Amino acid sequence: MTQLAEKPGGVVRVHRATGRAPSGRRRHHLTSTHGRIAWTFVTPFMIIFVLFTLIPAFMALGFSFTDIKASDVRNPFGVGFVYFDTFVKVLGNAGFQRSALNTLIYVVIGVPVTMVIAFLLALVLDAGIRRLKGLFRALIYVPVIANVVAAAVIWQYAFTNQGPINSALSTLGITGPNWLSQPGTAVFVVLLLCIWRNIGTCMVLFLAGLQAVPEEVHEAASLDGAGYWRRVASMTVPLLQPTTLLVSVLMTVNFLNMFDEPFLVTNGGPLNSTRSIAQWVYEQFGYGNIAGSMAGSWVLLVIVLIIAFLQIRFLRSKA
Amino acid sequence: MITRRSPLVSGVLYLAIAVICALMLVPFALVFFGAFKSQGEFIADPGGWLPQSFTNVQNFVVLFVEKNFGTYMVNSIIVSVATVVANVLFSSMAGYALAKLEFRGKSLVFLAVMIAMTVPYVAIFVPQFLVIAQLGLINTHVGIILPMLVMPIAVFIMRQFALGVPDELIEAARIDGASEAGIFFRIFMPLLGPATATVAIFTFLSSWNYFLFPLVVAQTQNMYTLPVGLAIASQDSNTTNYGVLLAGSVVVLLPVLILFLFLQRYFIQGIATTGLK
After folding, report:
1. pTM to 2 decimals?
2. What is the nearest CA distance from B128 to chain A, expressed in angstroms?
3. What is this model's ipTM?
């Protein structure tokens, strides 16, 4: 092995030696070696995938049709099969419905706001300014890497009744609300955290997309007398379709799966106004309602898949 | 774009982007200011921004002496280092196979990568926990690390980079008779410098910031990672001392921020690579 590069002649022997057990059925000696080595290379990934994605996903689906409780976890295969009862219970549960409504609010407001801000920032950083682009890009990206627990602590502190935000507002002559104790403002605070955390990712993806748009397209259009916004609307936006699709699916999935932010900042309150589906799932698990928790997670999974599918269809059909 | 712009427009754009950057950074300013404020300062002036002195490290002392943050930090470092090492090795292996080798079941493996990247974490973490429980790994470091040993995103990033490695290089080595393992370790790995950096940083970021799963797997204080320890401390209503909590946030944020300062190119490359399929 140590002489691979220096002594090619010797290496052939090594190779023949490692290929010493040809499976025989394969047509090509080299391919059979490839197959084995390739599978050796992907095995660690596949083991983890099967163990921690595939099996859990099917376990969740399977147990959704049972009445598994916390006490059954040690012996999960003795539980009763209840068909769709658990799903019916979950979908009829007022707490679940409320969390579904909250999640819908997050997606409907959060995704477009995040994307529009990120897109405008990307436009400015792509062509609007000449200097310091790297610095600005990095600064806008910083929140993406911030730990969500730390961010939530900051948010809780910043939005306390007499906290820094309200103190800053009062210097402007505005009396700030008690942010975290009223449903409307609490949802706003949670959304703000999510938007803050997601803008950077969106912006970087838009920037990457913009850089792939050929310069000539813009030059030609401006020679034809198209103004800036006209060019953005009729050329940049359509040309960015694949990026927009990717970003919108990514963001929708992110906002649908929102867990950390409401869990940490408001713990679902006040009056259940911020609890997301994901948090509901987590809490039911904690209460020992494992079947309900898993059924809830599959409802979320199906919603995610349907929305991602619809978005792809919608954006493709517009193209 | 080549168009010339008036200085006024440029000035407005610079101002706008500077203001937005400042707004994005306000939370960081708040946490760094707050970490140096004493409990007395919070009570006297809850809305104040600046601390009386930046040399008051009392909050950090409380964290490490009374609040066990030293242990949490050691746990976070163990989890992160193990995750990074495993991901760099396993994802480059898988990425190489997916990009450069032909084998039966290849499209199936790639499909697995895509599925693993899309399945919402929330939908599987409860049964993931049950798997960990069946393996007898509750409240262990291994239990926290195992699901993150090879992150699909790392495999995907490696595959994207591997696609860019010229086939001729690998063919030439193959003709010279190098074994596939030899090609991988002696030719392919050395070419992957930037990809390795990107994967290392990305997986470090994920494992350092990992919250939900360690929260359920770590059940005693000596297993908590930093984010879990911070979350538990912040939910403890007896000690709503914002100074200590903000200092804890600084401890959680700082390593990643410092890393980002030096390596931001790779952070951003990671996200751009995964976006540009």
Report:
1. 0.87
2. 5
3. 0.90
